[in-house]
Amino acid sequence: MEKTISKYTLFEYLSGRANPLERQLVEEWIVRKENAETFHRWLLEYETQSPQFVPNQDIALENLLFRLNSTMEEEGEWRKEEGEEEGGAPSWFARRSNRFWMAAASVTLLVGCGWWFREPLQYKSYQTAYGQTTDVYLEDGSRVALNSNSKLKVPRLGFWGDVREVALEGEAEFSVSHTIDHKRFVVKTSEKFQVEVLGTTFSVFARPRGTKVALKSGSVRIDYSQDNRRREVMMEPGDLAFLDQEGAVQLERKQDVKTFAPWTEQRYVFNGTPVKEILAMIEENFGQKVSLSDSNIAQRSITGNFKTKNAEELLKTISEVLDLRVEQNGASILLTNN
């Protein structure tokens, strides 16, 4: 009967806690070709769950060679006792040993590369281009609407442990599913700022010009650092939170939730929004930089709800509302007074 092992047994073997029988079972299981894919998948999972372990590859290789030599000597003696002839065609054991050495080399290479490129192995990234939005569905049933020029990182092997953690650069709306074990969901935008939820719908804006969180439903807690002290703020539906210039979180209560993340419907909602802020948003979302012929234009503001698919349509709307002219010369765009 073919011998199989469990993932737990392999983890015990890799951590050095396996007993002699378990070590023998693992080493016999590794060399079988049909187990290669499962072995590499489990090995990657083990390395992901043990990031604090930094192996001494010289000692590890020395121990592996010792085990291999011991195993080969024992099996070689056993084969001789069974009357196996030396010379001639390669024996079953010789072929088996070659496969074992190939597997061992693969393990060494994978582990070595894994520690040099640990983040790409641990996380999968979803990234949108300028003017592109997409929906990302996570393994727990949560949905993330990712705005243009944004990046979301999620664990490649799925959520494990007590926290479902993702990292965001840019802007996204999260619809988080509740889990039966009440596992927390955390969105990190930096080492000093994160949003923690159980089950809710909220949007996060994390760009160079600022950080904002808007809560549509449920409840979230913002954890952040200010003056090397940990602080937290609880949010309720309709709250808009943003970081001020001093690094503190400020709350605006009872906001219109319809204005939160309108880009998911290709809409832009302005409420006394200055032109300079709109132009910054155009550069962030569409990668197009717009200049002004008169600095006074930057302070003019717009109120309205506009549906648009690209920067050209949005600029046309702004120019018509404020009686401006759009001048384009190649990649350069200039807004001037009529």
Topology of this structure?
Blueprint: H1 7-14, H2 20-30, H3 36-49, H4 57-81, H5 92-116, H6 118-122, E1 123-127, E2 134-137, E3 143-146, E4 151-155, E5 163-175, E6 184-190, E7 193-197, E8 201-207, E9 210-217, E10 220-226, E11 229-235, E12 240-243, E13 249-252, E14 267-274, H7 275-286, E15 290-292, E16 301-307, H8 311-322, E17 324-329, E18 332-337
Parallel strand pairs: 5-6, 15-18
Antiparallel strand pairs: 1-4, 2-3, 3-5, 4-5, 5-8, 6-7, 7-10, 8-9, 9-12, 10-11, 12-13, 14-16, 17-18
Helix pairs in contact: 1-3, 3-5, 4-5
CATH topology of the largest domain: Jelly Rolls
Oligomer: single chain
Radius of gyration: 29 Å
Distance between the termini: 86 Å
Strand content: 25-35%
Helix proportion of residues, in percent? 25-40%
Count the helices. How many? 8
The number of distinct β-strands equals 18
Order of helices and strands: HHHHHHEEEEEEEEEEEEEEHEEHEE
